[in-house]
Description:
- The chain is 35% helix and 16% strand.
- The protein is an alpha/beta fold.
Amino acid sequence: MITETRLVQFDSLELDCGETLHGLQVAYETYGRLNEEKNNAVLILHAFTGDAHAAGIDHEGKTGWWDNMIGPGKGFDTNRYFVICSNVLGGCRGTTGPSSMDPRTGRRYGLRFPVITISDMVRLQKKLIDHLGIPRLLAVAGGSMGGMQALEWAVAYPEAVEACIPIAATARHSAQQIAFNETGRQAIMMDPDFQNGDYPDDKPPARGLAVARMIGHITYMSDESMREKFGRRLRNREAFSFGFDIDFEVESYLRYRGQQFVGRFDANSYLYITKAMDYFDLTLGYPSLAASLERATARFLVISFTSDWLYPSYQSLEIVNALRSRNHDVTYCELTSNYGHDAFLVDIAEQTEVMRGFLDRCQRDFRRPQP
């Protein structure tokens, strides 16, 4: 399936920080067809470094980041569902972000881009869904930061969401999760090439961004998966180098991941999106998590993974318990996996079966929005 990224323009968006962005662009892709009843639309919400290209193969031959879950006969079956995915606000893959041109100055925003939140991202996504003429989504679904957006959708737009599927997610970051993000941000901003966010295309803060990605990538894997994949195996050596060149395979892997990341992601977007994740707190303005989720009318499928130590199962259970305390329709599945946080991207067999049954029930019971 060859996919095409589309672009849509919006005049303005008011942000939580009090500023207004003008002349916004959103990049998105769709898979499958919207039926006449308009009750089969599923919005996929990507994780931190994802983009609109969630499935199929683009014109450069790149496979979508969740292609194993989206397509004919897959978890999100495009023979049945109309699947949408857009790049988030603040991103660097087609949607307006710090690498975009500021229409007021004709220069790139850089650090002049206003600070954004998860709710700002969702507010822009709502404009896209309205543009597509969809009054109520069958489901919003996503892993990691995508799960945060799904939760925000359910609370901010209860009338527009039939089902909410947060996977390996949280209602708010812990101190440890904020600490990992801050370490990555500092690595970028301390790079001499950062230039206060005004670096040129041909000389980004590559070293800092690569280190930030290396730190992040460690958190996505589990101890067990790293033992199985690397152990203490040496890289092309029979003995230690007694220096600071690459000795271990895991060192080589992390350096490769960091260098690869520099070619496809913007350092300023890294700063803005991680800050938005850290700011996210579903309880803000409410006395408790349960009180915030009381606004939601969707049914929920919450999924976590046993080896995920970045977004551990206890954080998913906090969401589940809050929903149950308000008598919401919620299904919880903790799936066994050795892949750590990355399990939602790679360990998809059980995830697919759970998703199929849940979406089938949601579509049968679809409630149309009131006029």
